[in-house]
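Propose amino acids for all 559 sites.
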């Protein structure tokens, strides 16, 4: 029995591609060790005394619990306060990654992030030496809400810290443990809701940072939330969640995707109600009630749900999330903060399962697009012509998901008067080009973090050349300066102008940063119109685009 949400099999496949290739047993994080002193950096925060390590002048604290372990009766409940500790807590090792499926075939994103545990709600901090009121960069890892961890080597925050920024990275519940909605869970909730536990974890971590980061030299009023892929998706939902307001001052979304979301109690946009999906998953797992689900082994439960096709996503529940993100941003009801957002020119080159097969013949392609897109077909075919079917299918999928989302984010922030900055990452290097992976999904991360030598084992190797170093220097400068003051600036690099009426953007290509205007003319307008027509016709908008799109009839409301 397959229990599928509104997402396609291709969307489900992205989870197995992006999660870590590692196995690990349930491992609870060790209790704090009471000691009289500490040889490394020692912080006395409201949460308690915490000892870290000095790594070449950067104070590093790892595996700090920001919430109680969500196990037993706390499984599928909002995060509870972390237990207090006596003495000094040793924060010298990363906490376990959250429970996630174990993919059978490793890929370029795979890395060893063992062990796995339900006791995983921890965060890590990199702080400059003698930091005082430093800006805070709050990182949310990607992995399709299915896998990943804050301990991945490319997310090491030392290089950012050396530029005066405090880095915080977090773990949050994933998969069925983080995103199951179920009628019985809603019934036991004081708010009558269920499903958004991973998002609530992120908000709890932000609250912990708000309450404690000053002890590490950080400014709780100058927190930038940032993430890539599912992390960028999370940034959007934090901007939409009223309960996260006041916990961050700026936002960065890399390769986010503003697809339609499920609703808690009713089918909408062609998507089953989240509670209905959860009940079907539980039945397929032979769990008669929530008590049985809570008694099940976490790793087996996660693997079983994944095998059934359960794909985690955020839920519009009327409490944590009041509406579809597109609607919230249309109303200007999102967080009013400066925004930096962008995408990669080769997003789909490493995510080809998201793109439909290209038709065999150009005339079949054109006929299909004309039938599905109607009066939008000329604009579609101008952007994605039949001359190279494979490239056009890949480019459309990229733009329908990532390109349109990035430009929509900066446009909507500009409309409410907030500075917003758009980028396109379009850089390739020999090893990536040899694998036909020019500017692939997540390939900007080693440059943003300036950790080009800390990529996963099968990642195309980045050469150690002055050109690559210069691009990394510029990108980490832009990102950290935005976190500092809301304006991306890099030494010896072009000024990055706000999006504005001219549609300004920054292109990170083989020649380094280059400023431009009006990125991909007509792209945003086409995909905005497609989304609007789907929304008006109560149809989902996600990976079902291009030659697998539903018929898009003309809608006066979308003019």
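Proposal:
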């Amino acid at each position: 029995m397959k229990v599928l949400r509104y997402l396609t099999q291709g969307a489900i496949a992205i989870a197995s591609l992006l999660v870590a290739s590692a196995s690990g047993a349930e491992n609870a994080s060790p209790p704090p060790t009471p000691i009289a002193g500490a040889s490394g950096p020692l912080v006395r925060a409201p949460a308690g005394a915490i000892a870290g390590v000095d790594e070449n002048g950067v104070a590093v604290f790892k595996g700090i619990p920001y919430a109680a372990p969500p196990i037993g009766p706390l499984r599928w409940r909002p995060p509870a306060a972390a237990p207090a500790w006596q003495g000094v807590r040793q924060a010298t090792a990363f906490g376990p990654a959250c429970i996630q499926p174990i993919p059978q075939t490793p890929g370029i994103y795979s890395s060893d992030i063992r062990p796995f545990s339900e006791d995983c709600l921890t965060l890590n901090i990199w702080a400059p030496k003698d930091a005082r009121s430093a800006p805070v960069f709050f990182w949310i890892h990607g992995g399709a809400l299915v896998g990943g961890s804050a301990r991945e080597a490319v997310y090491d925050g030392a290089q950012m810290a050396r530029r005066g920024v405090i880095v915080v990275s977090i773990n949050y519940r994933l998969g069925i443990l983080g995103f199951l909605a179920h009628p019985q869970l809603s019934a036991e909730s004081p708010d009558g809701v269920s499903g958004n536990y991973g998002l609530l974890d992120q908000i709890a971590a932000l609250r912990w940072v708000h309450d404690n980061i000053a002890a590490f030299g950080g400014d709780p009023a100058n927190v930038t939330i940032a993430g890539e892929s599912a992390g960028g998706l999370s940034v959007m939902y934090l901007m939409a969640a009223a309960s996260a307001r006041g916990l961050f001052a700026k936002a960065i979304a890399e390769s986010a995707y503003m697809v339609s979301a499920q609703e808690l109690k009713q089918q909408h946009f062609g998507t089953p109600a989240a509670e209905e999906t959860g009940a079907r998953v539980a039945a397929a797992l032979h769990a008669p009630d929530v008590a049985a689900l809570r008694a099940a082994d976490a790793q087996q439960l996660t693997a079983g749900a994944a095998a059934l096709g359960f794909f985690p996503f955020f839920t519009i529940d009327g409490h944590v999330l009041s509406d579809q993100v597109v609607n919230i941003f249309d109303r200007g009801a999102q967080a009013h903060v400066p925004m930096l957002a962008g995408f990669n020119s080769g997003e789909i080159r490493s995510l080809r399962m998201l793109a439909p097969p290209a038709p065999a013949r150009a005339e079949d392609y054109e006929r299909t697009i004309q039938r599905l897109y109607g009066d939008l077909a000329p604009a579609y075919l101008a952007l994605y012509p039949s001359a190279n079917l494979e490239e056009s299918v890949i480019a459309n999928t990229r733009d329908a998901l990532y390109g349109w989302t990035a430009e929509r984010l900066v446009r909507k922030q500009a409309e409410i008067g907030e500075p917003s900055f758009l980028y396109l990452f379009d850089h390739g290097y020999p090893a990536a080009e040899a694998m036909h992976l020019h500017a692939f999904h997540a390939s900007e991360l080693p440059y943003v973090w300036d950790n080009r030598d800390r990529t996963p084992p099968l990642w195309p190797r980045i050469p150690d050349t002055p050109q690559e170093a210069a691009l990394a220097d510029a990108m980490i400068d832009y990102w950290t300066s935005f976190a500092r003051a809301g304006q991306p600036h890099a030494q010896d690099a072009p000024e990055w102008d706000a999006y504005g009426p001219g549609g300004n953007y920054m292109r990170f290509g083989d020649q380094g940063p280059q400023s431009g205007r009006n990125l991909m003319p007509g792209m945003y307008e086409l995909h905005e119109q497609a989304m609007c027509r789907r929304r008006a016709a109560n149809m989902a908008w996600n990976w079902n685009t291009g030659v697998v799109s539903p018929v898009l009839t003309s809608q006066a409301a979308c003019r």
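Residues 357-558 form a domain with the Rossmann fold fold (CATH 3.40.50.1820). The chain has two domains: 9-330, 357-558.
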